[in-house]
Structure formats: C-alpha cells, structure tokens
Write a structure and sequence with these properties.
Radius of gyration: 40 Å
Shape: elongated
Number of helices: 3
Strand content: 5-15%
Distance between the termini: 109 Å
Order of helices and strands: EEHHHEEE
C-alpha cells in the first residue's frame, strides 16, 4: 500500500487510498454523489443568463417517438384485426366462448324433465339411465328399439 495522499474529486479532501489502484474518490458516498451530480447535469437542459437552453441540449418537449401518427394507428388496427382473425381460425370449436344461442339451447335441454346420461352403463334388463330434473334423481327407463 502507498502512503501517498490523493485528493477526492468530489469533496477535495486528502485521503490515503484503500485499494491498490488509484482512487478518484475518498469514499463510496463521494463516488455516488459525483455520479448523481454528473447524470443530473447531463439530463437537464443548461440555461444561460437569457433563460434559453443552449443549442444541442435536451429539452422537455415531445420527441419523434412520442408523437402520434396516422400510420402508427393504422398499423396497430391492422395488427389487432389480424390477431383476432388468427385466433378465430386456430381455436377449436370446443374452446370458443359460449354464444347466446349456445346458452339458449342448453337452457332448453335443462327445461326438459328427463336428460339421458351417457356415461353410466345400462342395467342388465337393458334400461337406460336418465336424470329427472323435477325429482333430482337418476331413473331408469326401458327403451323400445327404433327398428321394431
């Protein structure tokens, strides 16, 4: 370690460095404050005595990206329509949301008293299971074949 003293670039105090390389600042606090001061002055417009910003400095006005253009709105609308169209084409019929007609058809089926249960087996005598909406229980009916 050196015994040579350096001068802090922020607070201008003399210090002995803690690290092997040459340090610009005496502490992390001075280093952070200097960084903040550099960035604060770079991002703000510099005002002269006349109150006007110097040429080439940043201003607070809208940039080219912030402006709204007709072509940008058109591109967004086309992308939205294309996305909706692809969703409609690629989504299976079973996964699409229910429509008013689907709900009315479902309500029509529920209003019927007996609904056939397809996932229960028939009895040994051949009677099929049905759900009775009025009594809220499963009943079995012997069905006549259609071809006789």
């Amino acid at each position: 370690m050196e015994n040579h003293k350096y001068t802090c670039h922020y607070c201008f105090k003399e210090y002995v460095p803690n690290r092997r390389r040459v340090q610009k600042y005496c502490s992390s606090t001075c280093r952070v404050k200097a960084h903040y001061l550099r960035n604060k002055t770079q991002n703000k417009p510099v005002k002269t005595n006349t109150g006007l910003a110097k040429p080439g400095t940043k201003t607070d006005g809208p940039t080219k990206i912030d402006k709204l253009s007709l072509s940008g709105v058109g591109n967004a609308a086309i992308a939205n329509v294309a996305t909706d169209l692809l969703k409609k084409l690629l989504t299976k019929e079973d996964n699409k949301p229910a429509t008013r007609g689907d709900i009315k058809a479902l309500l029509g089926k529920v209003k019927e008293r007996y609904i056939k249960i397809n996932n229960m087996p028939r009895r040994q005598d051949g009677s099929q299971p049905f759900f009775d909406n009025v009594e809220q229980k499963v009943v079995y009916f012997k069905m006549k074949p259609l071809w006789s």
